[in-house]
Fold:
Amino acid sequence: MDQFLFYLKLGFNHVMDIKAYDHVLFFLVLVVPYAFNSWKRVLWLVTIFTIGHTLSLMLSVYGVIRVKASLVEFLIPITILVTALFNIFTASKSPKNERFGLLLIISLFFGLIHGLGFSNYFKQIVASEESKLLPMLEFAIGIEVAQILVVLIVLILAFVGQTIFRFSRRDWVMVMSAIVVGVVLPMVMENGLF
Structure:
């Protein structure tokens, strides 16, 4: 039970770490177009992301793939930026009219990239473990719990902003996505090719 709690907390803290807020930013822009009545779609997006994250972590831990850390550190903020810009350009469209299959594929791909960002550190943690699969699954549960918490917070803020303060859905999506663009652009420039 102690091992389960250790890896569960590690996964939870990986998402909620104030110094590494890339997961929070990504889920903010991923979920901001939705409301509570779209909870099934949101849950699918979050879960598919976690599957991608866990898959790339697994492939990296077992030595199947190796990617330069500098490339991953550049790609992570790019995934956030692309998602935020997508929101800005599609803010006036209803989420019901979107191509949900495409969003699932994008969430899986972005999950793969984000998983690689933690793989080197995670490899060091599980190096002494006989079986690395169980710790990875426990870690994935912690990630999923944290991501669902972030998603709930975003949905609650959207409800308050759109119901109490009467922001239109379009304005809410545009403003929140623009804020994230402003936060993530320095990350892209700091880690990137610019």
